[in-house]
Amino acid sequence: MQLLDRKRALAIAPFWRLGFRPFFVAGALFGLLAVALWAAALHGLINPAVPGGMLAWHRHEMPFGFGLAIIAGFLLTAVQTWTGSPGLSGRPLIALFGLWLAARLAWFFPVPLAMLIALQLVFIGLFIAQMARQLIAARQRNNYPILLVLSLLALCQSLTLAGLVQGDDGLQRRGVLAALWLIGVMLSLIGGRVIPFFTQRGLGRVEAFAAHPWLDRLLLACGLLVAALFASGHNLLASPWLAAPFIVLSALHGLRLWRWHLRGIWRVPLLWSLHLAYAWLLLATLGMAAWHLGWLTQPSLANHALAVGAMGGLILAMMARVSLGHTGRALQPPKAMAWAFGLLNLGALIRVTCGGGWLWLAALCWGVAFALFAWYYAPMLFRARVDGHPG
């Protein structure tokens, strides 16, 4: 039976054998293109006719187009390891990826708005169904919080799209910002597992980092509370009492970073990139606390610290590491990836600290970072594993 399964897996073209391959390549290219289009629109160079305008498109596509693609690629691959059952591959993977791609293209074609919305929701619905099928069948209760966060993301996308249909800017903002902070919860969930593990392995450390389940649960609870406050509209107006959950999140993220820090990480690009990305998550929560306390003039700075620094940074670092491991290669990225990690963090810094006149430079840093990933990693992801494994 195992021999038969292996032959079936090897009969599938390498690019379609696991979810990380198509979603990492396409997600990176889409992230590059989407930010370039948004920067061009902001500078008046283009003005495509998209439903709700380019701001509505940008708001929706960064979390639900770019972010969700990489989340899907990672989770559809990781669930195979977690459950011991084969991950999505072959024609079912092609179909799911095709839905994601059609949902991205539909914004720029004269399709009915109902079809645009259906494509968005069908993709996330099928993705969640696939994850639920494998996790529930394997009784992976420790991974049920991931299903919860994904389901809440689907609700936030529905809220955002309802705002698009109704022309309600406030509803769109509530849905998108709640989704962004839910992605922050996902970064915390996944980062809390992989960053200490990768750090231990990357530095040859024998002793594992101590587990603190209470810290993980508190981070999850506070993160969900923050997302709920955004969805309800409460976090859209500054209020000193709303600084409390962000202060708690800041303390917990800071504690994690302190526990994970070892001097040797700064010699290893695959490690310092992960730690810096997680540090942006800490900065985002500190920024929101400062805004609610009246110490920061606009929450957009904190939200972009999360979107560009934390989400973009952790996505790039995770793709660079996961792609090597799952293609059977040594954990030594191309040397240019250190520049990619540095450029992405520089772009995040520019976006958060500089005025609107510098947005083009932040977009350029982001674009070059993901272009470097695509240039060096796409050939790996189109080829079979170097160790002969069918994955």
Automatic annotation (TrEMBL):
Keyword Transmembrane helix: yes
InterPro entries associated with the record: NnrS
Superkingdom of the organism of origin: Bacteria
Membrane-traversing stretches: 20-42, 62-79, 113-132, 144-165, 177-198, 218-235, 241-258, 270-293, 305-324, 336-352, 358-378
Keywords recorded for this protein, A-Z: Membrane, Transmembrane, Transmembrane helix
Pfam families to which the protein is assigned, alphabetical: NnrS (PF05940)
Protein name (record): Uncharacterized protein involved in response to NO
Source organism per UniProt: Ectopseudomonas guguanensis
